[in-house]
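Risk register update: the risk that structure generation would not scale has been downgraded. Supporting records follow, first protein first.
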Amino acid sequence: MPPLLAQSILSLLPVVVFLFALELIDTYKLVRIRRVFETIGAGCVVGLVCYVLNSAATHASGLAPDMWARLGAPVVEEILKALIVVGLIRGGRVGFMVDAAICGFAVGAGFALVENLFYLPVISGAGLATAAVRGLGTATMHGGTTAIFGLVSINLAEFSTLDRFRAYLPGLSIAILIHALYNQGFLNPVTSAALLLLFLPLLFSFIFWRSEKVLERWMGTKLDKDMDLLHMIATNTFSESHAGKYLRSLENSFAPVILGDLLCYLQISLELSAQAKGNLLRREMGFPIGHDPQLPARLKELAYLEKQIGRAGKLALAPLLGTSRRNIWEIHQLEEGKG
């Protein structure tokens, strides 16, 4: 086996194994294997873009590559990696700390795959073991920083009163700081890699424990509320409930046909939400999720009703359905699971 190929495999194999180990111990299977590969691919694209940008910035600024790596590269690389995670959060593709961390680590792993292919030849003269350790440390750092960005950002995006832009600044600042400190070379490559490999499993152990607690509490509270509303709709007692009276109070704000659409949208949303939570519980218990032939039609009807009621209608239903990004995340879970 050529030395360069051996170095690349040795430096990336533990990171890839760690990434897929995270996915396997994800009790509720919040992140599908396909999503993992997609985010790794996105990270590879970011790695290529950053290589071009870093090369151009080094040439334009006249700085030595080592100096740019310490000053400019951490900012450029962490911002571009973070954009992938931001897109997943804002698109409702991640809903909890676990899936934010896994997707963030996958982006970083993809980025490191490309970066190591470009930079390992430069350090290959130091020997197989040294080059592999440096590659491993860099790959772990990239995965870790983007995972930490995802962790901080998903929490702030869900619970913070910060505006859309500022909610992502704390996580980005932490990622850039860790990256910049790593690039200063204060510690030798072996020590840096060892510290990262010690710190990340501890961090992710806490993440999985904490996220499962949050997920279980959220499912219990939200599922009870959803089932109560569905029961009232099914037994024709909804109109006399507080939720029904609230909906009737909107008569002066919406046309009668839109009010009917609001009720239909509410019912289908509640049914799909309960179905998504049921699927999560089945995965947690190891049961297969059966195919629901009616799901595509129900998702299509929900999308149609969403257009009919518009943004004003969705805001009007917010007291009943909530405004959490996890509402969108549940729908994506159903679409991806096909059941």
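Supporting record for the second protein:
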Amino acid sequence: MPGKKYPVKLTDEERDYRGGLISSGTMAARKASHARILLHANESCEEGYFEIDGIADVLHVSRVTLARLRRRFVENGLESVLNLKPRTRPRP
């Protein structure tokens, strides 16, 4: 099996920031879910690391969602995953 195209490797600062967000309990559900996904997808920490199928089962999210978040994290950083951009077009 080839290597992962978008490996998630959180720095200590990113891990601490993410942990503080989840433990505060005052954040949006989507933001908390994205933070948990990054925690489980973090390859720089052996403890708590899961493969994609394991993350999907544990957090009840699709593999497509996991792939999108991993790509967005690698390309744009932590803030782009946790803070979604406002829509440019209104919903119908």
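The longest helix spans residues 63-76. On this basis the risk owner (M.S.) recommends closing the item.
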